[in-house]
Amino acid sequence: MNHPTSQPMADVRDMYMVHTFLSREFGLLPQLVRDVAPGDTARAEVVGSHAALLCSILHKHHEGEDLHLWPRLQERAAAQAAAIVPRMEAQHHAIEAVNTVILALLPQWRRTAHNGDGLADALEQLHSVLMEHMALEEQEILPLAASHLTAAEWKLLGEHSMSDTPKKHLPVAFGMAMYEADPDVIKTVLAGAPLPARLLMPFIGPRVYAAHAKRVHGTATPPTVGRRHP
């Protein structure tokens, strides 16, 4: 199946924005867990709810790729896709397996703030496999997506990532993504959003994330990882 060449093609820069914030937040999580004092359930709830939100975002992000990206690449970039998509899918399965372990460990830790080492170890494992996956995706998949998916098709990934996300979590999710993002990419991402979100999110997102980061990281300006880019 061929896509109509008259349509604008995918601008994949927003994927680098997503990868940047996932790299930062998942990289900081293991130590956040280890730093919670045994029995400090108030702090465990703050860190644990942040971890649960990130795990949910990651799951929906990868689910969107499974549904909307791999099939189109396999249809349109046959040999190139055949060489890399199965590896991407295998990495998704590995990441989801660790994500499932983390989600199983979180509830009890949030309630008791005891035995956090296993949770921290699982988060470290997740960060390791996620970093490998994102690097390979940027090297091999994003150039294919830019050549073979239309802008409208690419937009489906972002829409899927936000589907089922409670509205109260959207500003902090956007704020996390915007923290190290290229302003031009932010503007492009919001261009198709409803007018209120397009006007307000550039102001609300950073403020909500700053307050969230203060609670979670102890600072409104947590350590950056450096903007990922093409």
UniProtKB/TrEMBL annotation:
<feature type="domain" description="Hemerythrin-like">
    <location>
        <begin position="14"/>
        <end position="145"/>
    </location>
</feature>
<dbReference type="InterPro" id="IPR012312">
    <property type="entry name" value="Hemerythrin-like"/>
</dbReference>
<dbReference type="Pfam" id="PF01814">
    <property type="entry name" value="Hemerythrin"/>
</dbReference>
<protein>
    <recommendedName>
        <fullName>Hemerythrin-like domain-containing protein</fullName>
    </recommendedName>
</protein>
